[in-house]
What we know:
Layout: E1 2-7, H1 14-24, E2 40-54, E3 64-80, E4 85-90, E5 100-104, E6 109-110, E7 113-114, H2 117-124, H3 133-145, E8 156-162, H4 172-187, H5 194-209, H6 216-223, E9 228-233, E10 238-244, E11 249-255, H7 265-285, H8 300-307, E12 314-316, H9 317-324, E13 339-341, H10 343-368, H11 373-393, H12 400-412, E14 418-423, E15 431-437, H13 441-455, E16 460-462, H14 469-472, E17 474-480
Amino acid sequence: MKVEQxxxxxxxxxxxVELEYLLQSDSPEVFCPHGxxxxxxxxxxxxxxxxxxxxxxxxxxxSNVFEMTLNRAAVAACQAREDRNLxxxxxxxxxxxxxxxxxSLDDFYADDALKSYNQVKExxxxxxxxxxxxxVLGCFFSLLKEKKIEEFPxxxxxxxxxxxxxxxxxxxxxxxxxATLTVLNQLYSLELDTMEIARLAQIVENQIVGAPCGIMDxxxxxxxxxxxxxxxxxxxxxxxxxxxxxxxxxxxxxxxKAPRSTKSDAYIDTRTAAFMGLSILKKExxxxxxxxxxxxxxxxxxxxxxxxxxxxxxxxxxxxxxxxGETVDSATQVNPEKVYxxxxxxxxxxxxxxxxxxxxxxxxxxxxxxxxxxxxxKVAGSLMYESNASYRDLAGLGSPEIDxxxxxxxxxxxxxxxxxxxxxxxxGGGTAAILCYGDVSTSLTQIISAYKLxxxxxxxxxxxxxxxxxxxxxxxxxxKESEPLTHF
Length: 488
């Protein structure tokens, strides 16, 4: 198969090159009943994973968060079909996944009307091995439901190739959603801007997949740029600035292989309790600053003086519902039978928001005052350690494996170029972010070796940055049958 690039970036990333090779070699992995046909055009988009440096789960409370793209990514390649069928295929081999899925665009309708999000969620979750399909084909439904397109004129086949490990806490799902929406944006000429893509991706995650995440993952994957960090104000999705990484400073992710998920009960309960606290504060204090429903508009001092005295340590769900009714959070519901830890879950995002601001200021000061670089890195590292402890003690989303890795990093410390470490994203396991200064190859080897000795697990390291989906753009490939070899 001959693949001719009609449009697209000159510099191709590893993930795109690997997919192009599969097409060129007539791979049956791609050219199959649920994949591509050997003619026509293929549209390609790419969206990266992200490393959550500071902020994490405080995003759904309106926090400032600090993120960067990684060089791991998901690629979505799409080919138009002449019928109304949708096919999707994943090339990420995993025993828990059924690699392909087929449906019709008509399956999104019942009695000539669009189905509800819950109905489509059930469509993709009928079998555990096909829930991943919601991340991909759910994008079609969200475009219809959110009125970004009146009707799709034709179906499509989408092939997903990702080297982002699932459950690592580096936004594998957001990358797939953003890559898919980016490629559909081009295929159907929708003219969506970057932030619309991020918002739609979050809707897919919340309403179709059923993971009540905030929006930082989708914004970073869509709008991030290579070698710069994003300061995002999640009220709901304002990019405040792009920050250059200081000279000789790097952020590295180490995957502990401890699985985690934003669909877990612990994550959902933590988010639910935070919004319960919001409801209590809105009713009891009546503050105008809470009208937008963001806890992080409360300062640390205001929390200590006014909020802490009136928030309950714990509260039964039915007691809360009787007194305050449902929360404003559309992604979670209060379970009447559960007892929720309220005060701590409210305190975490408010204090984390303040830590993020101080952290960004410290990082920006490293280049501003290079003679005091070590001092500012110590401040930044201390804030990371505080964040990790808060995830564990206040948010209830710590991880013994992460704590073990963070403790190892802290013992190596500044003399080994390791200034800070913390849990990332939704917590509960996954990846630790490490703040490094100078050559830390020896220190990283020590961390990885000590962790394996303690836990018997071989870690995986994520380092380096790459373009976000918008910066990468899209590629358009024309497929042509290769001419047979001529023998003389």
